[in-house]
């Protein structure tokens, strides 16, 4: 199996599984507790159906939209995800270049293995930076100032990770950052010699954006869960969010909004966007899915703030349903991490090409010339 054989999410997942040691594959693949919410994120799209119109003469539809002050050519972009060097030696560089090629947004995590400056130097495409509030507030200030100097287009603050979810797969597989051999993981690394060779012969593993502020950026001997619990501020509140919004003074989203009440509060503190997200089902298991919430949130605030759906996207039809329900765009995480693992930049480009083809074809089948024609009248919810 190779990239040419990857036609959908499951194909990329299978190829990634062949290339990655078990702890790393399951770190991408897993969720928290019983993974009920993880499954629901995608299943929720089956709660409604699309209603096409025929004989519309659509021709080639316009897939472009505007988020964080930048036009993107497709209504889909790469979610901020940590430690991409675990999946491919080129890490964030590969993701950023692929996104730029398709005219869409690349998002960088605070916990990236490449720095803000590195990515700014290699990509002129739309860029979003994801913040976490650390206990040491100077880390937050430093990241915001560096993003300003590097001309990032927007910031988002992840608000659903004040403590790490119970990711039991990581406990079972012995996942740590950086990877280390344990009784649980020894055999899985031994069976992936190419991954081990690439990892050992490339740039040293580090959290490039925080390494100068905390030794945890270069000396991570514990699991990512322990890092979150030790470094992130569990007392983060609305005042902290408002402080960062004002300090940035530009396009800004809260990532992890799941209720109308919180969406309204985001507007009150000056946010220009919200990302409806449950962290890919990796935090509060048993919580609702982003798609389950989007119509209610859009009905309440859709004319006042940009809405982005993050979570569960596997198909072009999922993107169409999200936009019809009120999203300006969607972002995806697991899918692009599997494609990155499967083939680096070319893998991410193959995924984006697949998704662009699906969205374009589905728009034509819906009889829609542009995204504005996708609205709630195009959906029927099952009872």
Write the CATH fold name: TIM Barrel
Stretches where pLDDT is under 50 for at least 5 consecutive residues are 217-222
Strand content: 5-15%
Average pLDDT works out at 91
Walk across the major sheet and give the strand order: 4-11-10-9-8-7-6-5
How many beta-strand runs? 12
Largest sheet: 8 strands, parallel
| CATH architectural type | Alpha-Beta Barrel
The tally of structural domains comes to: 1
CATH class value: Alpha Beta
Helix proportion: 40-55%
The CATH superfamily is known as Aldolase class I
- Specify Rg, calculated over alpha carbons: 20 Å
SSE ordering: HHHEEEEHEHEHEHHHHHEHEHEHEHE
The number of helical runs is: 15
Q: How far apart, in Å, are the first and last alpha carbons? A: 41 Å
Give a quick summary of the entry.
This protein has helices at residues 9-19, 22-29, 36-43, 91-101, 116-122, 137-149, 168-173, 186-190, 193-201, 224-231, 238-248, 260-268, 290-301, 316-325, 334-366, and strands at 48-50, 65-67, 70-72, 76-78, 106-109, 127-131, 154-158, 252-257, 273-276, 306-310, 329-332, 379-381. The chain is an alpha/beta fold and 383 residues long.
């Amino acid at each position: 199996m190779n990239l040419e054989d990857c036609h959908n999410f499951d194909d990329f997942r299978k190829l990634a599984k062949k290339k990655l040691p078990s702890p790393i594959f399951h770190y991408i693949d897993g969720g928290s507790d019983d993974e009920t919410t993880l499954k629901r994120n995608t299943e929720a799209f089956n709660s409604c159906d699309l209603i096409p119109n025929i004989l519309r003469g659509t021709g080639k539809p316009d897939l472009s939209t505007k988020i964080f002050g930048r036009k993107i050519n497709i209504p889909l972009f790469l979610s901020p995800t940590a430690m991409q060097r675990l999946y491919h030696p080129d890490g964030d560089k590969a993701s950023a270049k692929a996104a730029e090629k398709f005219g869409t947004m690349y998002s960088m995590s605070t916990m990236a293995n490449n720095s803000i400056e590195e990515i700014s130097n290699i990509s002129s495409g739309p860029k979003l930076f994801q913040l976490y509030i650390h206990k040491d507030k100077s880390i937050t200030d430093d990241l915001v100032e560096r993003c300003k100097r590097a001309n990032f287009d927007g910031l988002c603050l992840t608000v659903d990770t004040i403590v790490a979810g119970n990711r039991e797969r990581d406990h079972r597989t012995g996942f740590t950052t950086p990877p280390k051999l344990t009784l649980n993981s020894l055999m899985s690394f031994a069976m992936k010699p190419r991954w081990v060779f690439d990892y050992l012969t490339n740039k040293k593993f580090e959290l490039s954006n925080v390494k100068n502020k905390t030794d945890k950026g270069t000396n991570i001997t514990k699991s990512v869960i322990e890092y979150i619990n030790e470094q992130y501020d569990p007392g983060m509140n609305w005042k902290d969010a408002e402080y960062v919004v004002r300090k940035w003074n530009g396009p800004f989203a809260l990532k992890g909004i799941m209720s109308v009440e919180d969406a309204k509060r985001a507007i009150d503190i000056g946010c220009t966007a919200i990302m409806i997200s449950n962290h890919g089902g990796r935090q509060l298991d048993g919580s609702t899915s982003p798609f389950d919430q989007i119509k209610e949130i859009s009905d309440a605030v859709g004319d006042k703030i940009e809405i982005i759906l993050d979570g569960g996207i596997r198909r072009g039809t999922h993107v169409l349903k999200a936009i019809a329900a009120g999203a300006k765009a969607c972002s995806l995480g697991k899918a692009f991490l599997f494609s990155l693992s499967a083939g680096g930049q070319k893998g991410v480009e193959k995924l984006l090409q697949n998704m662009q083809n699906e969205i374009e074809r589905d728009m034509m089948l819906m009889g829609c010339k542009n995204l504005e024609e996708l609205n709630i009248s195009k959906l029927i919810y099952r009872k």
